[in-house]
Design goal:
homodimer, alpha/beta, Rossmann fold, 13 helices
Chain lengths: 328, 328
């Protein structure tokens, strides 16, 4: 991909949407050298955006909820970027089509930007690409950056590492509260939303969730931001019901973070997470380089493990030693 | 955790269930030194088990389906271990309770073993612990090891790296086929199961899925094991309907792998994956060691990035350089 990165960065500074879109493509598909140049240039322009994470299982109505929240934030005069993070899919065309359909709800509004991202390209996948896409959107000057992910477990934890406020969406009948607990979402949520609250079972879901939150609180003790107890709100996002209250809860959480100095703490955590992800990705890249071609070291080590000549840990030690030499 | 690992390994060789359970606890919670000793001792005894992955979103009825498949495999005279992999949860007590309830269906049958695993403990989480738990269960002599995971996207890909045969479970009304495609499950599935097939929408889900498989096939070209086209089967697991056909499809896939030499190829891929995960985990551990206490290097680097003195990539370079010295 031959691109004039300096021109794109200059274009971004002048608010050009095309430059923004192309820089996000570099984040998703570009070489690490290109990424390094882009992040290096944009990093001084970051630190202003509020980052919201919205996550939940397939079918809870995340996209509709996200769009309704974005509309409400727009009404309050804030510019909004939505990063819809999809796990790897061979059908990236579908994601692009989805963007276009969703954009129709915000057509001709330059204060809303929607982008889908799939985990192709980099070895570290979305946990590597997402925080860097947030850097680009932050530098582009959006007031709010919403990261919307399909997710159970792992991805919510990664969202929470990048977001200022994490919102977990549930819906009645989509797997019960016990499954929500299994998925490990309870610790990372700042706000819970029960969408499709007009469907049967919303009340039961809410009381199960409330019970588990209390149990978790009793088990885990007082962790996280002292004094914040995640509210549980009900919405019917397709009809816009309950959205004002959700945005109110998000704003209240922002105020809470600001009052406690937590905004700074979370931004610090976000940079810390980014640095570690970049270092891990570099390590994966070194491993990948050692594991390709005719001198595939990993293949040789695997054969020796299969021949019972090495155990897997000793093989991993040899891979690490080789990567230290290779990275030198 | 002071444990006599040699005694546990000896106990495992004599078929003691208590030794098996305690070794799995070491995999989940033990130190890396303990793990290294366990895997080193057990590795020579592995390579016999067939590893099945069963995955799907919350609510599709995975546990019921898994139990029904296990019952059918038992009827064919095979011993079965089920590893129920849950994303991190603060409620590990819940997982244990779940095991006990599920075991009641197989009570007094020494040929079935069920264990839930949560991603506490190690930095690499379940992608690190799961392949090692499989080593323990393989060494314990089970004919079939079933890894059951809640998952969307990432976790299925990791299952496929460890499993011989990957089964993806769907259900009508749990998010439509387009969402299945988004979740990136199409490339990794060897067998699709539409559970709750007596519910409305099963036919539509099947035809959507079939359409996407054909589209994906056309897009991605002929990848994977040549000559295997993943079947789509329907079950009502709570009533045991369709399970014989599912086990038939799994056995057919095993035969297919064996005929093509693919069993060997997949086992090679599994060991390769394990070695790389161990090396990555060692890297994460080194990073964690550098990022704790009063000399927290990652904290210092983060502060310099926040002060715009470094960009995040240069900070990652410094973390890597320090980790190379520290690991020496």
């Amino acid at each position: 991909m031959a691109v004039d990165l300096a021109a794109l960065v200059a274009g971004l500074e002048q608010g050009e949407r095309r430059a923004l879109a192309r820089l996000l493509t570099v984040v998703e598909d570009g070489s690490v050298e290109q990424l390094r140049e882009v992040i290096g240039a944009l990093h001084p322009r970051t630190g202003r955006a509020r980052v919201l994470g919205i996550s939940g299982s397939p079918g809870v109505g995340k996209s509709t909820l996200t769009d309704a929240i974005a509309t409400q934030l727009r009404a309050a005069g804030r510019s909004v970027a939505i990063l819809a993070v999809d796990p790897s899919s061979p059908f990236s065309g579908g994601a692009l089509l989805g963007d276009r359909i969703r954009m129709q709800g915000h057509h001709a509004d330059p204060g809303v930007f929607i982008r889908s991202m799939a985990s192709r390209g980099h070895l570290g996948g979305l946990s590597f690409a997402t925080p860097q896409a947030v850097v680009v959107l932050d530098a582009a000057g959006f007031d709010d950056v919403i990261i919307e992910t399909v997710g159970v477990g792992q991805s919510e934890v990664e969202i929470a590492a990048t977001a200022d406020t994490t919102l977990i969406a549930l819906a009645p009948g989509m797997g019960d509260g016990v499954q929500a607990a299994k998925a490990g979402i309870l610790e990372v949520a700042d706000v819970f939303v029960i969408n499709k609250a007009d469907a049967a079972g919303a009340g039961r879901l809410e009381s199960e969730l409330r019970g588990m939150l209390e149990l978790g609180h009793a088990t885990a003790g007082e962790e996280g931001e002292a004094g914040w107890w995640p509210p549980i709100l009900r919405t019917v996002a397709v009809r816009g019901e309950g959205i004002t209250e959700v945005v109110g809860a998000i704003d209240a959480h922002t105020d809470h973070l600001d009052a406690a100095g937590g905004g700074r703490v979370r931004r610090h955590a976000r940079v810390r997470h980014l640095i570690r992800e970049l270092a891990l990705e570099a390590t994966r890249r070194t491993f990948a380089r050692l594991a390709e071609g005719e001198d595939d070291l990993l293949d040789a080590l695997t054969a020796r493990v299969e021949g019972r000549e090495l155990d897997p840990y000793t093989a991993a030690d040899e891979l690490l030693a080789a990567s230290r030499s290779a990275a030198g």
